[in-house]
User: Fold these one by one.
Assistant:
Number 1:
Amino acid sequence: MDLIVKTENLTKVYGQKTAVNSVNMHIERGDIYGFIGKNGAGKTTTMKMLLGTSYPNRGSIELFGSRNLIAGRKKIGSLVESPALYKNCTAYENMKRMAMISGGSSKQIKEILELVGLDKVGRKKVSAFSFGMKQRLGIGLSLLGNPELLILDEPINGLDPGGIKEIRDIILNLNKEKQITILVSSHILDELAKITTRYGIINNGSLTEEITASELESRCSKRLAIITNDPEASLTIIKDRFNGIQADIKDGIVNVYSPTDSAAINQILTNSGIFVCEITYIQDSFEEYFIRRIG
C-alpha cells in the first residue's frame, strides 16, 4: 500500500470545541478520496491541517511516506474555499502571476487552461466569469507546479448541473490521465459516487469509517437483515453452514449479502437454539448509507 496521506490521532481544538477529533486518515496513491460529512463536521479543518494553514493540537501527519511536511506540501495543489483571483485580469494573467510563486512556464499555463476549458476565453476579465469558470480557473491555479496530490474543498458547491459535470470530468481526467491523487469533499453524494474510489466519512469531528467504492456498492446491494437474540453466534452459524457466504454484523444486525433463502437461514438458526426476531430484505441507496452514519 502506497500511502501518500496518513494521519494519526489528528486533533484540532478551538476553545471549548473539538473541531477534529483523533482522525486517522489513509489516502493511497491513485485514489479519488471522497471526504463526506455535514457542514461543520471537520472536513475543511482537516484539509487545512494537511496543507499547513492550520496546526493540530495533537496527532501527526505523514505526506508521501515522510514527516518532512515542508517537502511533502510542495507536491500538493489545493482549492480550499473560494479561489483567490485577480478579478481585473484574464485567466492567463492570473495563471502567470501565480506561476511566479509556484513555478510554471507559459507552455504549461496554456496546457492547463486547455485542460480546464479556459483556453478560448481570450481577453475576458475574471470579473465577467461565471461561478463555474472561476472554479475551473481555481483548479487550474492549483495545478501549477505539477502536484502529485490535489486537495479540493467543495469544488462543485453552488454549480448548476452543467458546471458540476465539467468539474467532474476535469477531476476524472486529472486522476486517470495525469495520475494525480485527489482528496475531494462534497455534500452532493450522488455526484461523489460517480468518481470516488475510496470514501472517508466524518461526523462531529471524528472519522467514523473509511470504505472503498466496491465495498460501498456491496453494502448497498440487496441484503438480508436478521435480528436475533445473539448476533455473534448467529453470524458464526450462518458462515459455518453456508460456505463462502458474505455476511457481517452492523449495529447488532446480521447482514447477509449473498443470495440466500431466508426460510433456510431461519430454520438453521432456530434449530441451533437462536431466537429469530425479524428477517427483512433491504436495499439502501448510497445516500441512505451515508445518512445513517452522519445523522
Number 2:
Amino acid sequence: MALTKEKKKSLVDEFKAHEKDTGNPAIQVALITERIAQLTDHLKESPKDYASRQGLFKLVGERKQFLTYLKRTDPEKYQKVIQRFDLRK
C-alpha cells in the first residue's frame, strides 16, 4: 500500500523549492494526501479493518498540522496545495 517511486517522485518534483528538497511541508502534505486516498479506497473494500482506520485518522491529523503550519508560514503555497488536492479549508 506504499506509494510507488514514480508517484512519489512526481509529487516531490511538483512541490519542491530547490533541487534537494524533500522535507518541505507542501511535499509532506502531498505525500500524506496520496496515502490517505489509498487508505480510503482500502477501507471501502475492507470496512472492518480497524487498524488501518486508526492509521488513516492519524494521517489526517498529521496532514492538518502540516496545513496549519503552511498556512501560517507560506499562504501562497498553502492555497496552491489546497487547490491542487481539492481539500476543504
Number 3:
Amino acid sequence: MGLALVLPSAWVEFSGRYGAWWQDGLALVIGATGLAIFWTGVTGPSPDWVDHDGT
C-alpha cells in the first residue's frame, strides 16, 4: 500500500512535467505518507510506552 503511494508521487516530483506549487506539495505529502505506511508495515507498530519496571 505504501509503495502504491510513493511511486506515483516520486514520478510527479522528479519528472518535472508538473509545475504547479500545489501539485509538488501534494506529491510530497502523499509520498511521505506512503513511506510511513511502508515503514510501519516492514518494522511493525511500535509500543505506546516502554515499562522499565520489569513487572
